[in-house]
Write a structure and sequence with these properties.
This protein is α/β, with parallel strands linked by helices. The chain has 3 domains: about 70 residues, Rossmann fold (3-Layer(aba) Sandwich); about 200 residues, Mur-like, catalytic domain (UDP-N-acetylmuramoyl-L-alanine:D-glutamate ligase); about 140 residues, Mur ligase, C-terminal domain (Protein-Tyrosine Phosphatase, Chain A, Alpha-Beta Complex), CATH 3.90.190.20. The protein is about 30% helix and about 20% strand. The strands form 4 sheets. It has a 7-stranded mixed β-sheet, with helices on both faces. A 6-stranded mixed β-sheet has the order 13-14-18-15-16-17, sandwiched between helices. The protein has a 3-stranded antiparallel β-sheet with strand order 10-11-12, with helices on one face. Helix 5 packs across helix 8, helix 5 crosses helix 9 and helix 8 crosses helix 9. The longest helix has 16 residues.
Length: about 425
């Protein structure tokens, strides 16, 4: 939401906003552009008849006093995705969807288009090297959108990506996620079936052929559909090279899941006018989206990565990727359970086997997260049983996790930190000092 506010400000719009809490980095960025509210909270006086549009985020509930005032005045009220669509009605819309990899694939497409001097707008869920913002709205003829399946707003509790009506679409996978919104796998899959219906038969869909459930869902579209598979590649001295049309293209990302992401991005870029050679040449300098398999530090004996992985399919793919790239190093994994789904006893069995390729595993969840999400606290032994990893260490306090970092041996190791949370408040610079 703060990135959209900045994008509209940069476009010349007069933008104001409200929230009851604003944290960094959003707070600092809003202040830089003169968009930070003077007072935090909800005030009816902020809503006046001269407002052209209200953009409603998920944090504002149906009883929000500003929302009630806006409805009473008959103002135009949009959810975030609905407004993005309003701003892109006359553009060629590219939408990247899926349970995993959509941020990375969106970033890959953005990187390749920019490298080949193609003008486009975008919406992506992370910072991307070479781009100042994560939302851009201009007069460009193309917009590349990360299509999130999470709900849009209190007034429109439907998946965000149902609004975008893409001309070019990609689905990376349909592994169950967001159990609080999609309580069953069937309901989750239905969201993607509806997304495909919104693509239309004459518009293009590419999808990952390695996801069997996705194969069945995608088969309901009969025209303009194309699967993508793992490309031919080799690894030598920690360098991954794509082999295509008797040429070799070195790339900076690794892991089979990222190679699949890359092939999906390539299919999208071909539809936008790039050649295969242009895509592979330009993608060689792509180092990843923010916090997606990000190498933090490397010495002769130790390597440290961090990743945003939290869903079971993402965790498994990330662990396998690091294992493949460093077959001769000890793999030490630290995973934080932080999302609503991962802290839910009904869902946690989905993680079984996801850490099996690691040599040492530490699992952390913060008791405070359960209070915020109003969930019953998970039992340590049950979590241990559900992960089915014999030597798994389960921690629930910052002190326990810090002790693990202080006492572990990191020689000849690659250390992988997977978290979408705060690791109990441990500063990442302290983790770097523990490891090195």
């Amino acid at each position: 939401m703060h990135q959209l506010a900045i994008a509209l400000h940069n476009k010349g719009f007069r933008v104001t906003g409200s929230d009851d809490e604003i944290f960094d980095p959003s707070k600092s960025k809003l202040k830089k552009f003169g968009l930070l509210p003077t007072n935090f909270g909800w005030f009816e006086s902020n809503i006046t008849e001269d407002l052209d549009a209200i953009i409603l985020g998920m944090h504002a509930k149906a009883d929000n006093p500003e929302l009630i005032k806006a409805k009473a005045l008959g103002l135009n009220i949009y959810s975030f995705p609905e407004y993005i669509y309003e701003q892109s009605k006359n553009k060629k819309r590219v939408v990247i969807a899926g349970s995993h990899g959509k941020t990375t694939i969106t970033s890959m497409v953005m990187h390749a288009l920019q490298a080949n001097n193609i003008d486009f707008d975008y919406l992506v869920g992370s910072s991307v090297n070479g781009f100042d913002y994560s939302v851009k709205l201009s007069d460009a003829p193309i917009i590349v959108i990360e299509g999130d399946e999470y709900l849009s707003s209190a007034l429109q509790p439907i998946p965000k990506f149902h609004f975008y009506k893409p001309h070019i679409a990609l689905i990376s996978g349909v592994a169950w996620d967001h159990i609080n919104v999609f309580p069953t796998l069937e309901i989750y899959h239905q969201a993607f079936k509806t997304f495909i219906e919104h693509i239309g038969e004459k518009n293009y869909l590419t999808y990952c052929d390695e996801d069997e459930a996705l194969q069945k869902i995608a088969s309901e579209k009969t025209e303009e559909i194309e699967a993508y598979q793992l490309p031919k590649y080799n690894i030598e001295n920690h360098q991954v090279t794509i082999n295509s049309n008797e040429r070799q293209y070195p790339i900076s990302v690794f892991g089979k899941h990222n190679l699949l992401n890359l092939e999906g991005a390539k299919n999208v870029c071909l539809r936008l006018g790039l050649t295969e050679h242009q895509f592979y040449t330009s993608i060689g300098s792509f180092t990843g989206a923010g916090k997606r398999l990000e190498k933090i530090k490397e010495t002769e004996k130790t390597v440290l990565y961090r990743d945003f992985a939290h869903a079971p399919s993402k965790v498994s793919a990330t662990v396998k990727a690091v294992r493949e790239l460093y077959p001769n190093k000890k793999l030490i994994c630290v995973l934080e359970l932080h999302t609503y789904s991962s802290l839910n006893q009904q869902f946690i069995k989905q993680y079984q086997g996801s850490l099996n390729d690691a040599d040492v595993c530490a699992l952390f969840y913060d008791e405070h997260s359960f209070k915020i999400k109003r969930l019953p606290l998970l039992d340590k032994q049950e979590v241990f049983n559900d992960f089915a990893k014999e030597d798994l260490k389960v921690f629930t306090t910052k002190t326990e996790l810090e002790s693990f970092f202080k006492t572990a041996t990191f020689n000849n190791s690659v250390v992988l930190i997977m978290s979408s949370g705060k690791l109990g408040g441990i500063q990442f610079n302290d983790i770097i000092n523990f490891v090195f």
